[in-house]
Amino acid sequence: MHTRFIHLMRSVLAASLLAAAPVWADSYKGPTPPAVYTQECGGCHLAFPPNLLSKASWQRVMSGLEKHYGSDASLDAATQKQIDTWLQTYGGQGKRAREDPPQDRITRAAWFERKHREVSAATFKRASIKSSANCAACHGDAAQGNFEDDRVRIPK
Amino acid sequence: MLQKLFMLLLFASFQAMAATPADLLAGYTAQAGHPANASKGEAFFKASHGQEWQCTSCHGKSLMLGGRHASTDKAIEPLAPAANAKRFTDSAKAEKWFRRNCKDVLVRECTAAEKADVLAWLISLR
Q1: How far is B101 from chain A (nearest CA, A)?
Q2: What CATH topology corresponds to B37-124?
Q3: Does ipTM surpass 0.90 in this model?
Q4: Chain B contact set for A70 (CB, 8 A)
């Protein structure tokens, strides 16, 4: 009963936040990631906002870094722990994190596919884009957590 | 906790400043037990080792110009120290990337001799 009440309150709070700040819908406004996250994860790809995956998904990603989507992304134990702690603290918050997408890929989440339904597979494969994981190809301000529709420019 | 992290980062950055590509090469050469061979390093770097990716898949064909990550398309700064003064100035960072990238390209870690050869070649580039 008690947990159900907390759940309800959480939903009400989330709904009121969403209603109060509609312009935030496609942006990450949480705490700035620690330098270690930007350096290590951002060394190869966009340092993805932590709210795009659930905590369980982040945990699986972090425990399989030697085989990270076709590449070895292993870290030393201390660095791994720092990043893991941050993701388990700030990951999994908000509506995007309600599902564990296939293979824990952000690009396979239902919300991601819905948001990109007008972008064809051929477009994602363009030399200027390469893959749907390359957020910054079209979302110029992705590094700042800005994914708003009016900031999108799809390169030729 | 945060203060500790700061101290660690500060310490790491001092360490990084202390090393030069020549220092790292000396370390790998000592481990290998024989002098480095730059032309062997070039051939090793440009060769296919039977996997989907080669070194040049991400680092590009010109090490003075840089490349783009083969799957994410992220820009990768030039690997040659002459073009990018930050390269090979932090031995832990160099070791981390050798470990990961050798596993991607050769499905094993590189030997100290292979690292010495590649680094000798990279240092020779102008």
Answers
A1: 7
A2: Cytochrome Bc1 Complex; Chain D, domain 2 (1.10.760)
A3: no
A4: 52, 71
